[in-house]
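Quick entry between incubations.
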Amino acid sequence: MIFGAVGFLFAALAAGIPVVLHMINRQKARDLPFSTLRFLRISVNKTRRRRRIQDALLMIVRMAVLMLIAFGLAQPTVTSLRDLFGDARSAVVIVLDNSASMDLTDAGRPRFETAADAARQIVDHLEDDDEVALLVTNGPDLGQPDKPDRNPEDVHLVLDQIRVSAERADLTEAMVRAKTLLEKSNAANKQIWLLSDLQEHSLASLQAAMQKPKKSQDENADAEGEEQEDTEKEPSAVIVVDCHRQPKANVAVTGVTLKSQIPVAGLPITCTVELTNASTVPRKCHLELLIDGPESHKQSSPVILVPPSGRETYSFQHAFGRAGHYRCEARLVDEDGSILDNRRFFAIEIDPGIRVALVKQRRHEVARLDDTFYIEQSLLPGDDGESVLVPTVLTAADLETEPLGYKVIFCVNLKPLSAPSAERLRQYVQDGGNVVWICGDNVDPAGYNQMNETAGGSLLPAKLLQLHQAGKGENAGIDAWEVDYIDGAHPALTGLDDPESLYRSILVQQYVAVQQPGDNAAGVLARLDNDAPLLLQRKFTTGSTTLLTTSAGDRWTNLARRPIFAPLLVKLAHDLAGTKMSRRDLPAGDPLVLALAGETAERKIRIKPPQGQELDFSTVADPAGGQIFAYADTHQTGIYRLSSQQTTPSLNVAYSINVDPQEADQRKTDREELQAWFGDIPVVFAEDPDDLTSTFKLLDEGESLWVLFLSLVLVALVFETFLSNWFSPKQVDEDEMDVPPGMRRLARKGRGAA
Amino acid sequence: MSQGTGYRYLEPSALARVKNLSVVARGVVEGAATGLHASPYKGFSVEFAEHREYTAGDDPRHIDYRMLARTDRLYIKQYEEETNMRVQVLLDISGSMGYSHEGEISKLQYGSYLTAILSYLMTRQQDSVGLTTFDEEIRLDMPARNSPRHFNEMMRQLEAIEPGRMTDVAETLHKLANRFKKRCLIVLISDLYDEPEDVIRALHHFRHRRHEVIVFHVFDKAEIDFPFRDVVAFHDMETDERLQVDAPAVRDAYMQQVEAFIEGYRRACAEAQIDYVMTDTSTPYDFMLSRYIAKRNKP
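Done. Structure below.
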């Protein structure tokens, strides 16, 4: 503690005034005769003890008031730790938040600029012997220090290079790192400067990270000596430069969702863009959807009103005319607080069509005699040529050799498959393929069941029983069975159950009975009126198997000639093919990791970032099996394309890297809460982030206690007045003045009773 | 010396206020002359008292012949005699009675005025009045008499009184109680600064001897209100003991003590059928006396 006017400390001697006055008054006591001292003696004895305490208390308060005034006039200030340690060195770690939210314009300039300037001011304020380290929360590694050093020029160089990133900040990690750096310094005065907008999510785990691990009672006894050492390692102070002041109104594109049954050329895709308004006023926005790939396209939205502190969505619709990889971007046209979060990238791969295989036992010269005739007719494009299904006709023998790169394989009236074909088909289903079995004369239930058992039960949805024929045997009195039930809730059958005539007009003369599936097995999508399943489906983790218990020709049923047949097959194919649509979307800064489970040897991967040259990397062995590829430099937002000709099949995928939507959340950590999280470490908040002069002054010279002293004097004076009033003798009640002594007690009792 | 009466403690204005009053004994008193008060002696005055059987030697003039005619037996008529009252004023002249705050009338002077006007009233109604002054001992003892000369002597003695030293009220009262053989009215004028239990016991002694007792408990106004400010070094007027006190600080406690002191006497006197009159020197004695006599004479 230092004093601005030390001379006034002598005024503290005035504290003796009450004592002197007391002594003077004591000597000046009037000498008076009195009739008797008997009552006075008793009274004095009764009040002496209380009186002494009161007198002492009053004396202390009065002396304290005078001393406080003297101290106040001497202009005391609490000095910094630096002063206490004389000319001890300082070690300063600057934690600079350059996350995406720091791009926001705040109080007329981007927050990051404010923070970077503050960092420069801190570095410029350091003495020659002081140590400094700069920790940047995000972005490329610019050579993070392993301890504070005495070279502020390096910090200036780094400050000139760093830019605001599109990443999410983890200030907790940075603060822990800063503490670790300071522990390596021997400086007496250790400071952490946190230059940030204090976003709530970026400090979420700071409390736990800053608290010391609790020790047991035994450990406490042992650790008493270590405690002093720990205290010396702790930072002397944490100085927070809060760059969150008056942010400019901002709307961010925080999400894009794509909805399409299957991403194939010709089918419309719905692209829903989510907008978040972090400001407290409603904002009007315009969105644009940019598509760049085999064909370019641009769409604009009408005016979208985003409510204050709320979200709004807008949906674009687009049908891609050609297959290929598309680089897409949803972006806000209007200018607002930050441009970083106004764009959101996404990649989409459009297939040329849904490749389906139609497998039949053998080819007929007369097409109409083929079991697949009606199916081919249903799946092939019509006169308008708008079908997205691309059917390929195979024979059973082709299953042993032909690559099975199809979304759906229709196995139509096949004899039980050979073992290699069955194994390939099992592998196909395991890898996510979809098999649809259509019965017919060639289907031998026993052979099918054996084939299924060999494949571990993954080829058929249920065990086949015997063939049922209407008008024969036990079904002698039956002409045909009608379809009695269709699961209208199933995506493949949506809309086919209404009107009922659509499916009730189907007549089945022959079908292969199946064992009724259990609860966890296949689902029955259609039934006959004798409750026998007509269409069953069983889904595995990725693939599926479906069974039509009657034929696709016209000998067993009229199904193939009913209006329901073609839409049923198309919808079934779309449903089965569309299950694999997936997106690769990552927040900026997260590593891009691609596992190649089927690869055993090292493969070359070519990566093309949003900007810059293509780069070649090699995969490494994955401990879990196969090869793995990881790429960490994802600081830039945009589309990252990965390709390789060495993988099977060849690799060609795209990743979209975007600003973390959480960065649009402007909720700020409460200062008191932040202060509490640091525990015993004093936290100082810079008054003006643009100009840290007052903060430096506070840290160097301490805080004037003038106001505190004045407040204490005021409180003491009030207390003294209260005490004096409390201790002063009470006047006789006016009502008792006319009552003679000896009757006053009775008079009081009387008033009480009244 | 008061103009008009020739006595210092007998003021004409006070006389004018009390001239129509008379002090009547509540019980019987044993007097030597005929007066206002009932006497225990049976004589032959106008008030019939009772019959007594005639014995040899009785004056035949007092035989009740009507009773003889009715009963055929001789009875003597006896009459209750009205007699004068004996009043003995006991005036405390101890050092504490000399106290007066800021030069006002002292308690002793107040008591003297009271003694003088009481003596005047008693003498005027043919009662005998005596005066006894005391501090730790009896300083003056004038037996009760009813004569102008005696009254004159009493007044002169009053004017000559000076405050004494220590007080021993109880012991002195015991001595006096033993001294007065005939029943009389005892008027005690004192500040009663002695142990209350002892004083009350002494007052009971008077009552035991069938004396009627009136206590005028005299205070100075300052002794009751304790109007002192700041720190004051008091010295006791009887013992010269010194005590420095912060007067405002002890005022409450002091007043509680005084109030308890007065209350103790008031209750004890009421139990012993003793008239207790607390007064202070700021209250005009004639006013106080006339109010007391008016209250006393109420049936």
